[in-house]
């Protein structure tokens, strides 16, 4: 499944003057005006799959109230041009009437939205109900950057359990409509390196914590340390057991996102910083595969110019090596189709800085990485199709 994506983050941030603002990535990239052109560029790339979702905060107007106008236009055109969407239902934000990820009522409302969407488009099979749960909870409730802008372990655990419950309930709701639906979790693949022997305990703790979103989603038993951490910070035994009893893992492909910023150094004062690529996608994804034994898709990566082409080739080499080593890897994604805006500050600033990360720039002119990706798709898709039935699925 060669794919790309339309970046559609929409968290709320606090501006320097104290006002709140919704940061809508599709608005910043011009997608609302140029969506048909964008989909045609996906076809020009030779891609059959697209990570794409409606602007959730604009569609879900209230309990059982929806505005499907833009969604109908875009998804009907995707069907017309034969692009298969991997439907991204929640990407780092919620509608204003929900508030934020601390709201315990949100998971049920979100499941209703997912069910309504599936009923409206019953032919769609692939879904990412909630994108990058670990990042959404961390940036919103641990770092204090987005949405609720809290910075505590209790706020993090609250956001995490609500995001994971919303994810599971949405999958159950979609399956009621489409029993053959497949869910591709897009989750950030993290690793924490101890830069001094004194940092080893903290690094070990963080390397357990990175799994929490998938542990809860997949009903995987957490370590004793993580169980104590969850209960200490507001999760009840009943809430934890709910995830064990609502295991929906059999319908899932594990999406692993990997960027240059996904590996971290742990310092003696307890802080962390980016380490750059130390292990790389192969090693870290193998850790996740060993834990969950699920089929995998590389669901996000990018690198700014002028290093993008080299990064693409390196990521593809890692993906193909995993496949050759018997890991059931189902797809690859360069994210996103066009350049992004303000991701250099993780959307914390509304500065309008263009980040040269796309297959195309914001004038919709192809970048060198777009040419290179098109070549990979053309050169490899037939070879991979022939190999598909020979891959050893040892999971």
UniProtKB/TrEMBL annotation:
Pfam families xref list: Glyco_hydro_1
Instruction: Give the protein's recorded name.
Output: Family 1 glycosylhydrolase
- Listed SUPFAM superfamilies: (Trans)glycosidases
What is the taxonomic lineage of the source species?
Bacteria, Pseudomonadati, Bacteroidota, Cytophagia, Cytophagales
Superkingdom of origin: Bacteria
Q: Which InterPro entries match?
A: GH, Glyco_hydro_1, Glycosyl_Hydrolase_39
């Amino acid at each position: 499944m060669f794919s790309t994506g339309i970046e559609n983050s929409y968290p709320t941030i606090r501006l320097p003057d104290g006002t709140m603002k919704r940061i809508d990535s599709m608005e910043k990239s011009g997608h609302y005006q140029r969506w048909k052109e964008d989909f045609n560029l996906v076809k020009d790339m030779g891609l059959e799959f697209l990570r794409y979702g409606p602007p959730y905060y604009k569609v879900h107007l209230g309990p059982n109230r929806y505005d499907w106008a833009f969604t109908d236009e875009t998804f009907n055109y995707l069907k017309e041009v034969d692009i298969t969407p991997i439907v991204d239902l929640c990407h780092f934000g919620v509608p204003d009437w929900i508030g934020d990820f601390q709201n315990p009522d949100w998971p049920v409302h979100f499941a209703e939205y997912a069910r309504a969407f599936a009923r409206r488009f019953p032919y769609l099979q692939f879904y990412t109900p909630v994108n990058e749960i670990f990042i959404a909870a961390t940036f919103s409730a641990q770092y204090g950057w987005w949405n609720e802008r809290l910075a505590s372990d209790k706020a993090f655990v609250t956001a995490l359990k609500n995001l994971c419950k919303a994810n599971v309930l949405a999958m159950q709701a979609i399956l009621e409509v489409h029993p053959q639906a497949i869910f591709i979790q897009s989750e950030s693949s993290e690793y924490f390196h101890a830069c001094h022997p004194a940092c080893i305990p903290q690094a070990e703790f963080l390397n357990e914590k990175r799994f929490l979103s998938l542990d809860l989603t997949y009903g995987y038993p957490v370590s004793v340390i993580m169980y104590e951490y969850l209960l200490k910070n507001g999760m009840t035994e009943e809430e934890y057991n709910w995830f064990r009893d609502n295991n929906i893992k059999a319908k899932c492909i594990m999406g692993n996102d990997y960027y240059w910023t996904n590996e971290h150094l742990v310092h003696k004062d307890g802080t962390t910083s980016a380490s750059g690529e130390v292990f790389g996608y192969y090693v870290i994804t193998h850790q996740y595969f060993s834990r969950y034994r699920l089929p995998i898709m590389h669901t996000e990566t990018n690198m700014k110019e002028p290093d993008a082409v080299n990064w693409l080739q390196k990521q593809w080499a890692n993906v193909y090596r995993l496949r050759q080593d018997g890991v059931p890897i189902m797809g690859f994604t360069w994210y996103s189709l066009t350049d992004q805006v303000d991701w250099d500050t993780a959307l914390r600033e509304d500065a309008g800085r263009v980040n040269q990360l796309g297959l195309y720039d914001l004038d919709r002119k192809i970048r060198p990485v777009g040419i290179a990706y098109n070549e990979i798709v053309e050169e490899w898709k037939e070879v991979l199709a022939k190999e598909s039935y020979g891959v050893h699925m040892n999971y």
